[in-house]
Amino acid sequence: MSSKRFRKLPEKTRDLNADTVEKLIPVLKQNCTTKFDESLDLSLQINNKQKKSEINIRTVINLPGGNSKKVKVGVVCEDNKSQEARDAGAEVVGSDELIEEIKAGNINFEKLICTPGMMIKLSKLGKVLGPKGLMPNPKLGSVTNDVKKAITDAKSGQVEIRNDKDGNIGLSIGNKSFSDDKLIMNFKAVLDALEKEKSNSTIKGDLIKQAFITSTMGVPYKIKLSKNI
Asked: What distance in Å separates the CA atoms of residue 206 and residue 68, rounded to the nearest whole number?
């Protein structure tokens, strides 16, 4: 049974005509009637079923308007890089002993960064890290010798864009407390990243079939995209 607060929200918003994100953000903020700072979340469905292959998108972007999420970072690196990682803000740092902790199932971080020299050892833990989406990846900037930059990126607004097997992508572009301009900047950064992914793929036709935006405890609205992607 829905709450009194939820019953006061607009109904059947999915049936409304699509509108631009610039017009929808103020409406979403009005619907944020809870006491906490709700996030504004995108839900995208991509055209991942192609005739010759299935499209899988996985990339990271740094949201120009930042985000409000606090990410606990783990770093697997050589001993001579441990202090650099700690100074950059990593909460969990280690080499062989940290790999053994992970192997035992003790995972106390939300993002894992690894140096190339340690990746050979860490790669054996694919069955532990893979299902959780924590395996470092050179394409995503999480296998690198520049651990300081990787940690800074992870903590300053970096988000991963990844579709599931049904072609759905979900991510937050910020919170109600963010200015409209910052939310719009983040939204456009997501579209730019997807447009780049499309140009590097074999996708025929539009990549995005439909797009919705909602708040944590709100209702969804269909987004009218300003350009075809």
From this structure: 31
Helices then strands (H, E): number in the chain?
8, 9
Do residues 104 and 128 both lie within one domain? yes
Residues 82 and 130 in one domain: yes
Domain boundary among 103, 130, 155: 155
d(CA 188, CA 173): 10
Instruction: Dig out the tokens for 129 from the structure.
Output: 């890290």
At residue 12, does pLDDT exceed 90? no
Return all residues near 143 (Cβ < 8 A) that are at least 6 apart: 113, 114, 115, 116, 119, 136, 137
Ramachandran angles phi, psi of 46, nearest 5°: -105, 160
pTM score of the predicted model? 0.83
List the Cα angle 136/197/152 in 5-degree steps: 40
Tens digit of each residue's pLDDT (9 = 90 or more) over 153-190: 999 889 999 999 889 999 999 999 999 999 999 999 99
Q: Is residue 106 assigned to a domain?
A: yes
pLDDT tens-digit series, residues 23-68: 999 999 999 999 999 999 999 999 877 666 678 898 999 999 988 8
